[in-house]
Automatic annotation (TrEMBL):
Residues 65-74 have a biased composition (Basic and acidic residues). GO terms for molecular function: DNA-binding transcription factor activity, RNA polymerase II-specific; zinc ion binding. Residues 223-234, 286-297, 366-392 have a biased composition (Low complexity). The keyword Repeat applies. This is C2H2-type domain-containing protein. It comes from the Eukaryota.
Amino acid sequence: MFHQQDHLKSQLQESHPASRHLFHCQECGKQYNTQLGYRRHLVAAHSAASGLPCAEGPQSLLEHLGSHTDRPPPLDDNSTATVPVRERKYSCERCDRRFYTRKDVRRHAVVHTGRRDFLCPRCAQRFGRRDHLTRHLKKSHAQESGLMPPCTPGCTPVAEPTAGTQCSVKEEPSPVASDVGLGSKEPMETFSRDMYNSYPMANPVPGMGHPHSLMQGSLSSSMGVARHMPPQSSHPHHHHLQPPVAPQQQPYSNMARYQHGSTSYPRTDVDSFLLDLQSAPPPHLSAVNSSTSTSASPQREVLGEGVGAGGDPHLLSRSPAISSSELSCTTNMDLGPLLGFLPFGLPPYSPHMGMGGLMMSYPPATTTTSPTASSSGLSSQAPGPFFFQPPQAHVPQGPGAHNHSQLPQAYSSPAMSTSSSLPHYYQAFQQ
DNA sequence: GGATGCGGCGACCGATCC
DNA sequence: GGATCGGTCGCCGCATCC
C-alpha cells in the first residue's frame, strides 16, 4: 500500500509539521510541501546535476539523504539551500533528550518508566521492548525450543503452552518513573503503555503449574471485564473474548496489530473507555485487588475501582473496542507479592514500587465461558495463549446492557471528554 | 565476546482528510 | 478514492555491561 517514499514523507512531515510549502527547488522553481517531496524531486530531477555532495547513484541517494539531514545546509546553497536541517524536534520531557520522531520519544519513555513488560517465557527475563524479547529469544532460546520465537507471526503459542508464548509482564513503572512522572503526565502515559504494550501473560515458569490456577476468579473476571463484549458486535475491529477452549487459534500477528493500541479502535469507544478510566473515583482497591496487591497503582486504582468497588462493573468492558488483551492488561492482577518469592529472577516485590508492581494476567482456569465468549468466534483477534475468562457472575448482556446511563455520574463527566482517541494516550506526554 | 539497552528507521496498516 | 497522518512492529547498528 504504502512505500518507503510515502513513509518517508510522513516521517519528514512529522519532523517538520509546519514546513509545508517550504521546500523550493532553486533549479527548477518547483515547490514542495514536504521535505520528502523536495528530496524526491532532487533525486529524480537533479540527482546528477544538483550538486549534491553524494557521489552515490540515485538509487541510493534517497536513502542516503537521510544521513545528511542532521547536518546544516551548505552555506553556499546553489541548489538545495532550502532543505531544512533535520532536527531532533521531539524531546523527552524527563531528560531533554531529543528524537527525530514522536514514536522514538514514546519508545524512549521506557527508559524512564523502567517498564519491562515483555517477559521471556523461558527464563523470565524481562525486557522493555518487544523486539528485545524477540532478539533474546532468538539468540538465547532458539536452540532450546527449536521453535519460532513466540512473538513471531504465525506462531501457535498454545500449541506450545509454556514455551511458545509471548509473555507480557504487566510491570508498572519503576519508582523512578513514578517520581518523575507524577508531576507531569506520567500516569496517563503509564496507562497508555499498559494499554499498548501489554501482552498476554502465559505461564512464564513451567514449574509454576497451570497458569490458570493462579487466577481462578481472576481479577479480570472479578472485575467483570469483558463480560459483555457484544458478541454480535458489528465493528470489525472490536475485540472479543477469547474462547478459552481454542486459544491456539490466535495468530500472534493478529494480536499484535490490535493489541497495541491500533488506531483502528473506534474513536467513540476509546473515548468512552478513556472517560471511564480518567473519571474513576479515588483509589479504592476492590476485594480482589486488595487481596492480591498492596501497591496503590493508579492504574489499578482506576481499574479496580471502576469495577470492583462499587463502580460500574462494566467499566472496562463497556467499551467493546477494547480488546480482550487490553482488558487483560488493564485488569492485571498484581502478582508482585507472589512472584517476589518465586525463584526466577524477578525483582522482589516492593509495595513501594507503586506502579512498579509486577503484574500479570492469566487466563482463568476454568473453561466455563459465557455463550457470548465462546461463540464470539473472534479468536483470531484474541491474544495468543491468553484469553479472558468471562466472569461467572453475569450481568445482562446484549446491546443496551452497558450503556452510559448505568454509569456513575463520574463516568460521564464532561470534564474528561477531552481525550478523543486512543493514540492520544501518548499525546498526553508528546506535547 | 555475548547479552542487553537504546535509537534510527523502514514496513505496514487503519483512520482521517480532502 | 487517493493522499496524508499516526500508530505498531521489528530489524539494524552502536554503545554499554558483565
